[in-house]
Amino acid sequence: MDGVIVDSNPLHRESWALFNLRYGVETTAAMHLRMYGKRNDDIVRDFFGDDLPPEEVAARGKAKEQLYREMISDRIDEILVPGIRVFLEKFSDTPMGLASNAEPENIDFLLGRAGLRRYFRVVVDGHQVRNPKPHPEIYLRAAELLGVAPANCIVFEDSHSGVAAGVAAGMKVIGLGTTDDNLPGTQLTIDDFLSAELDSWLRSQSPAA
What we know:
Layout: H1 9-21, H2 29-35, H3 40-48, H4 54-72, H5 76-79, H6 84-90, E1 97-100, H7 104-114, E2 122-125, H8 137-146, E3 154-157, H9 160-168, E4 172-176, E5 188-190, H10 196-205
Parallel strand pairs: 1-2, 3-4, 4-5
Helix pairs in contact: 1-4, 3-4
């Protein structure tokens, strides 16, 4: 979701920086880079230490995401990745799932506010699997729920951990350059869903091609 449906990483960086200041932590560029594609509990432990009790990890993660949702509440349309609405509508008859390490509250908030929930037959978040990305479990679970073989799935990803998960799941991966334009393991990397190169590649994957 983050970096694929919404170009939200700048706002995640801003909200993490503001949140971390509550605990006297200055957020560095290296910390921002480490958070991409990660589940919140992993980010909180990275930023604040492994010795936090699980309930405090969860509480800090929830508080940060509440701050993030407040920041994006009136900016949803502005941060949608260009072309995503047209793309989802064009392929609305194709089984599509959302598999994201994002917090379930963020997924519900974004899909509801943007009016995109109807396009996804299944939604799997990082708390519904034992192993978050870069482990392939979340993608394999989504494919299972969709009833589609992993080899017949196409993943759209913006992060190294997400690409690693898609590749490990045996799926084809398209990179979105919203977060990083150097994504080894992808079939191609595009700026957004208006890409003519994406259209050409998808046509080449059709059985009729």
